[in-house]
Every structure is written in C-alpha cells, then in structure tokens.
Amino acid sequence: MHVSSTRRANSQRKKEHLDIVLSKSVVFDGLSTGLENCWFVHQALPEIDLAEIDLSMSLTGKVLKAPLLISSMVGGIEAARPINQRLAEAAQTLGIAMGVGSQRCAIDDPRVAVTYQVRNIAPDIPLFANLGAVQLNYLYGVDECKRVVDMIEADALVLHLNPLQEALQEGGNTNFSGLLANIEKVCREITVPVFVKEVGYGISENVACKLAGIGVAGIDVTGAGGTSWSEVERHRTGSRANIASSFASWGIPTAESVQMGRRGAPLLTLIASGGIRNGIDVAKSIALGADMAGMAAPLLKAASLSAKAVMTALEEIIETLRICMFCIGAANLGELKNSPFLKKEGRW
C-alpha cells in the first residue's frame, strides 16, 4: 500500500474506533469481569483512621498518589488531541499514571505526533508510550520503539498484544510468529521499562510466564468484561460482521486474568484493567494480586466533555477505594493486597 494510502487508512480506522466506542454498545455478550463474584468481609471495627489511609505507590521511579492508570486509548487524529490533553490534566492534578493510544500513526505520519504529546501538561506523571507488538514483525524494530518513547518523553513503553482484533480487521497484521523474541530484543536494547498489555481478552498464566522470562518490567492483563474489540470491529466491517459477532463472549475475565498473571509473573508489576468501573473494582483487583488498576472507556467518555468531568470521575473512584479499604481495615496498598477479607465464590 502506498504511504499516503496507509496514512489515510490509519486515520480512518482511528476515527471509526473512537466514534464507535463513544456511540455504540460494545460490551461482551454474557461475559463479565468476574469481579462481581468477589466480595469483602466488612469490618465493623477497622481499627484505622480513614484520614490516614495511604494510597501511594511507586511506578517507573515516580510516586503515584493513587494506584490508577488512565489506560492507553486515543491518538493519531485531531479529535484525539483535546481528549489526551484533558486526560493528562486530570492525571497531573491527581497524581496518577497515563498511557496514550497506539503511536503507529505518528511513525507513519510524524505530523500527527502532536495529538499524543502531553508532557507539557503533565510533567510529573508516569507516562506510557504505546505501539502494537505485532509491528515488530512488520519492519518495525528498536528504533521505532525509541521514537515513540522520545516523541512523548515517556517513562515506559507499552507493547500491546491484539491477535483477535488483528484477525478480525480486514487486512490486519496477523503474523505473530516469533514475536516473543522480538519483544525480548526491545526489552534488552531500549533504555526505558517495557510493559506488555492485551487489549481486552486477558493475559494467561503461560503467557505471563513467557513475558517474565524475557525481561518485561510489567504486565497489564486487560481482561474480558469491559470493551469488546470484536464488537468494535463488528461495527466497522461488513463481510466479516458475523465472524466478529462469534467472539462477543471470548476472553479471560479480568478477575481470573489477574490471578493467572500473578501466578505466571510473581515479581512483575501487574496492572488490572478490563471493565474496571469503580473504586471497589480497583480494591478487589489489588486484593486478587494486582499492584494497580487501569481504566479506559468511562474516562474516554468523560474526556470527550472536559478535564473537569475526568477529574470528577477519578475523584469518585479514588474516594470509593479509600472507603473500601477503611471498611476492611487496610491502611495501605500492601495490606489491601494481602487482605484476608476478600472472598471468592463460584468460578469465572
């Protein structure tokens, strides 16, 4: 495909994705995060002071005020620019981390790099660059990874895995053969930590173990139960819509993927995302083994309105998390992670 045609195709795909997520129902069919099957044993005598609960943690050498990541979402089109700026403003104000959407568009067309650049708005937060891992099998390499990091002055690089989404896209990049070795090369040669995430179908225990063995710094499980990208692609495609609809209940629920990820990579930073909607979901995810939680769709919709709307949504999540920890007597994230009061019922 000609370079200008590739640029137009990338831009159109980004626009369609954004419009669909904001306007269509793209939820899983009969598959949830599994977090509803977990519950905390209320402690009527918590023996701690709500005002002294510590939500802080360290990530990429920086201190977060709360264990939250605004997950990778948008970029590459002009409509993404104000959204990323509003998200960054909220992240800086509240002291949490942020990722940007896939920067492949800006590698192909440097003119759109500005739609991702938010460091001037958020100078202090951990900021994650983002590139599709499969692009390492399509002429991209360490140099392109360095470019996306430098482009936004990022603290870390996220390589996202999306085999199902690529398989459902017409002309998708589906050669995942030997990809682990290429990810390992990036981990070895790039100077910032490398995180690997799914896009909504979860990381299994065996995949987590493989990633831990090649030098990955962290894993974002991005399990099933939030936005279904097979449903997003169903809205985009005509001839393959029936195939896409067959995967509306595909994936590893987030709660299960967190536990799988922790077993497979016991020493890595583990991020729970995929259908996280409130502070109790965050608390449950950390109690299951995650270090922090990421959120996307609810914040995207808020960011389409204003930075204030994003801050309001995040402040509610943080306060809910704080009160949840208070009611189980967990004074800090370490005590939450090792809480004996999380109970699980059934199987996801």
List keywords for this structure.
348 residues, alpha/beta, TIM Barrel, 8-stranded parallel beta barrel, two-stranded antiparallel ribbon, 14 helices, 13% strand
Low-confidence stretches: none
CATH superfamily membership, which one?
Aldolase class I
What is the residue-mean pLDDT, rounded to a whole number?
93
Shape: globular
> Would you list the SSEs in sequence order as H and E?
HEEEEHEHEHEHHEHEHHHEHEHHHE
- Largest sheet: spatial strand order: 4-5-6-7-8-9-10-11
The residue fraction in helices comes out at 40-55%
- Through-space gap between termini: 43 Å
Radius of gyration: 19 Å
Number of strands: 12
What's the CATH class, please? Alpha Beta
Q: How many distinct domains? A: 1
Tell me what portion of residues adopts beta-strand conformation: 5-15%
Tally the helices.
14
The chain-level structural class is alpha/beta
Predict the CATH topology: TIM Barrel
Largest sheet: 8 strands, parallel, barrel
CATH architecture descriptor? Alpha-Beta Barrel
Explain what the structure shows.
- By secondary structure, this protein is α/β, with parallel strands linked by helices.
- The protein has one domain: Aldolase class I (TIM Barrel).
- Helix content is 41%, strand content 13%.
- The chain is built from 14 helices and 12 strands.
- The chain has helices at residues 3-23, 80-94, 104-108, 142-152, 163-168, 179-189, 205-212, 229-236, 241-245, 254-264, 279-288, 297-303, 307-326, 333-337, and strands at residues 38-40, 57-59, 62-64, 68-70, 97-99, 127-132, 156-161, 194-198, 218-220, 269-272, 292-295, 342-344.
- It has an 8-stranded parallel β-barrel with strand order 4-5-6-7-8-9-10-11, surrounded by 7 helices. A two-stranded antiparallel sheet has the order 1-12.
- Helix 1 (3-23) crosses helix 8 (229-236), helix 11 crosses helix 13 and helix 12 runs antiparallel to helix 13.
- The longest helix is centred in the first third of the chain and has 21 residues, at 3-23.
- The radius of gyration is 19 Å and the shape is globular.
